[in-house]
Amino acid sequence: MVMLNIFPISNLSPIDPKTISTLFAVGGVVGTVIAVILSKKLKKRVPVIKICTLIFSVTAVFMLRAKSGFLASVLAFSMGVLMYVPLTSFVTIPQELPGMNPARLTQIMSIYWAVVYLLETIAFYFVGVLIDKFSYQTGLYFAVILSFSFFIGSFFLPETSEYKNN
């Protein structure tokens, strides 16, 4: 979300910020299509999440350092793709757990999204503080560091392919 909201106003991009936001959003649409295809073809969910979240965070570092307009465009599109490819796998995991029913799924996802949005709000606040006290670059690098938390969290997710065959 920082890439869509804060990066465009930071003047750190070598191309028009609106172009960055548009490429990121278009990449997200492409990523969603890829995610649906992958979720039907792959049995394992967690590797998709691990790979995409790691590459996303590394790509974000390069995005902040990009001096070429072409490179920034490719990276913005790639980040959009990489942000959305793991989402289908991620939201499918709770549905595939043994003993899952609609009521339990609703509770799990409601709690998850409530906690995530709370943490995101806190993170945005601290990104803003860093921008105000230091610079946009400092705040954005902090956001990139936070993006690695999704990769780290992927190591705690259950692999549901083990349950599907039973």
From TrEMBL:
Gene3D superfamilies assigned: MFS general substrate transporter like domains (1.20.1250.20)
UniProt keyword annotations, A-Z: Membrane, Transmembrane, Transmembrane helix
InterPro entries in the cross-refs: MFS_trans_sf
Transmembrane segments: 20-39, 46-64, 70-93, 105-127, 139-157
Name this protein carries in UniProt: Major facilitator superfamily (MFS) profile domain-containing protein
Species of provenance: Anaerococcus hydrogenalis DSM 7454
